[in-house]
Write a structure and sequence with these properties.
Layout lengths: L2 E5 L3 E5 L3 E7 L6 H9 L5 H18 L10 H12 L6 E8 L3 E8 L6 H20 L11 E5 L2 H17 L12 E3 L7
Antiparallel strand pairs: 1-2, 3-5, 3-6, 4-5, 4-7
Helix pairs in contact: 1-2, 3-4
């Protein structure tokens, strides 16, 4: 199994196989001062730091208090959903996703001979950004450059990740039952709730 590592603001460790949980967001969904505060308040232990940081980060984007909510539009959410389905069966097996008004949670399993998580995400973001900007009659950055990514280590973690992704609209107060959210998808073999 090959692996690669790179760092911008977040560390990224990618393997050429495995299941990944990825969260990516619109470019203006968290103000820079909030991000700086998040990084100041976390501990030093890497795994604990990453989990705490993600919970705080996700709480901010779930609040929907900042930036545009372009993904709340059916036309825009449909573009994003189609872009997520396109690599299914080519680079990855799509397990589940939820498209929130300002961010996306995505879980997939890499297939053999995939082009790598980094290139997959660059492609998804580039294609969806171009199409969404056209529909919105706007230009400029659409997605935040970095994504929050995590290799799912075992079946127990996968269960909780899928549950988290599908329950995100409920926990954010957008719907009462997870399957009422029209911008969620879960491959039936993985449905856990």
């Amino acid at each position: 199994m090959k692996r690669s590592f790179h760092r911008r603001n977040l560390p990224h460790l990618f393997f050429d196989e495995g299941i990944y949980f990825i969260t990516y967001r619109l470019v203006n969904s968290i103000p820079i001062e909030k991000l700086e505060d998040l990084h100041k308040t976390t501990t030093n232990a890497v795994d604990i730091k990453q989990k705490r940081l993600f919970k705080k980060y996700d709480s901010i984007i779930d609040s929907l208090n900042y930036g545009q909510k372009y993904l709340a539009s059916k036309r825009i959410a449909d573009v994003v959903a189609n872009t997520l389905h396109y690599p299914d069966g080519k680079d990855y097996k799509l397990i589940c996703y939820t498209i929130m008004p300002n961010h996306v949670h995505l879980v997939f399993e890499l297939l053999e001979n995939n082009k790598g998580v980094s290139k997959i995400m660059q492609s998804i973001k580039r294609i969806s950004a171009r199409k969404c900007n056209l529909l919105l009659n706007r230009s400029g950055k659409f997605w935040q450059d970095e994504s929050f990514d995590r290799l799912v280590r075992d079946d127990k973690e996968l269960y909780f990740v899928i549950k988290y992704v599908l329950m995100n609209p409920v926990n954010a107060g957008l719907v009462k039952v997870w399957n009422e959210w029209k911008y969620s998808y879960c491959q039936k073999n993985y449905l856990v709730i």
